[in-house]
Design a protein that fits this description.
Layout lengths: L5 E2 L3 E9 L3 E8 L4 E8 L6 H16 L8 E8 L2 E7 L6 H8 L4 H20 L2 E2 L8 E5 L5 E5 L6 E2 L23 H4 L6 H17 L9 H10 L5 H4 L5 H10 L11 H9 L24 E7 L28 H15 L4 E6 L10
Antiparallel strand pairs: 1-2, 2-3, 3-4, 4-6, 5-6, 7-10, 8-9, 11-12
Length: 369
């Protein structure tokens, strides 16, 4: 399909808005009513059974949620044989990511102005059994209504998952990571069970970024960032913003706890911490370590992009399973790590080579391995 074409005699494509990893989004005229809508059509390169199932799930997830801060879905159909599309409201405005790029750190007032409706939208999704799994500023639109009022919209449910699923058709490979690594939770990186607390962790990262203008977990590579997330190593927001709103500081510390069971269990509870009307249940949050006192970190064997796209998610990343994440803190036999490396080597000989990185602090035996 291209600009000028009409889908099902109902939607005339006017101009292309953007193209992502899954599909292309167009502004279209709804012929019968004369208004404008947004139409997302699956990319030809993604037109396979698994991608079509994901595409359908994206539309179903957003359509299931009834909330003014979630993008509204109007229709679903096929632009051709096995070429699905869905129709949603047209949102005119920048993304939250655009605003952060321009203004860096936002004021407390502006932060709460946009963060509160984001939490409300995600909370509504959880109550409908939808886990977003890819929350980030780029998936939040700051749209304008006809009267000039701003409305915050959460969109892009392409990686959403429904709670209580018994498995069914797998839309991700076992052991594969899905999401944007800078906003991932530890359990996503480790391919462990996810829950509403998974989205809460991502919300904590967004809140941190809103008030500081930077991400909490930084590194020279995606693997370094993920290692910090799993270890819970970051500089407290209050160190960067000394006069930070106390409720926001509490909420960030609680949301970024490594153990999902110790985090706020819902976006509503997270906002309660911000507002000061929810119980505080913090144990300890790991922050930037003092090299002289920091204990040795575990060595993590992380498998990177696969050369066989069928063995990874759309971003091409996967993570070693739990049994391949060693529990050693010192260099005494590295049997588990060595076995993991041997396994990757055997996969390479079999034609499924993957970039493998050994991550960990200096002096724990990475070079020897």
């Amino acid at each position: 399909m291209q600009v000028g074409d009409t889908l099902d005699g109902k939607y005339r494509l006017m101009r292309q808005l953007r193209s992502g990893g899954m599909g292309t989004v167009y502004v279209a005229e709804r012929v019968a009513l004369g208004d404008q809508v947004a139409v997302k059509i699956i990319l030809p390169s993604q037109n396979n059974d698994v991608a079509r199932a994901r595409f359908l799930r994206e539309a179903q997830a957003a359509a299931r949620i009834r909330h003014p801060n979630v993008v509204q879905i109007f229709d679903f159909g096929e632009a051709g044989p096995q070429t699905p599309y869905f129709v949603m409201e047209f949102l005119d405005g920048p993304t939250l990511d655009d605003e952060i790029r321009v203004h860096k750190a936002l004021s407390v007032e502006r932060t709460l102005e946009v963060f509160r409706p984001i939490c409300a939208a995600v909370e509504a999704g959880h109550r409908r059994g939808v886990l977003h799994r890819d929350l980030k500023p780029g998936n939040v639109m700051l749209s304008r209504m006809d009267d000039g009022r701003e409305v915050v919209k959460v969109l892009d449910f392409g990686l959403a998952r429904f709670t209580g699923e018994d498995g069914g058709e797998k839309l991700t490979v076992s052991g594969a990571m899905v999401g944007t690594y800078s906003y991932m939770s530890p359990e996503q990186i480790l391919s462990e069970e996810i829950s509403p607390a998974t989205d809460v962790f991502s919300l904590g990262i967004i809140l941190y970024e809103l008030v500081t203008g930077r991400l909490p977990f930084n590194g020279g590579s995606s693997f370094a960032v993920m290692d910090r997330i799993v270890a819970g190593r970051y500089k407290p927001a209050i160190d960067l913003v000394p006069d930070l709103h106390a409720g926001i500081a509490r909420a960030i510390s609680a949301a970024l706890l490594v153990d999902p069971k110790k985090r706020p269990q819902s976006p509503a509870e997270l906002m309660g911490l911000v507002d000061g009307n929810a119980p505080i249940r913090l144990d300890a949050t790991m922050v930037e370590p003092d090299p002289s006192t920091e204990p040795r970190h575990k060595t993590h064997v992380v498998a990177g992009p696969t050369t066989n796209p069928r063995e990874s998610d759309s971003d091409g990343f996967s993570v070693a399973g739990d049994s391949e994440w060693p529990e050693m803190n010192c260099f005494v036999c590295r049997d588990a790590e060595m076995e993991a490396l041997k396994s990757e080597y055997q996969n390479a000989l079999a034609g499924s080579a993957r970039l493998t990185i050994i991550a960990g602090d200096a002096g724990i035996g990475k070079s020897t391995l």
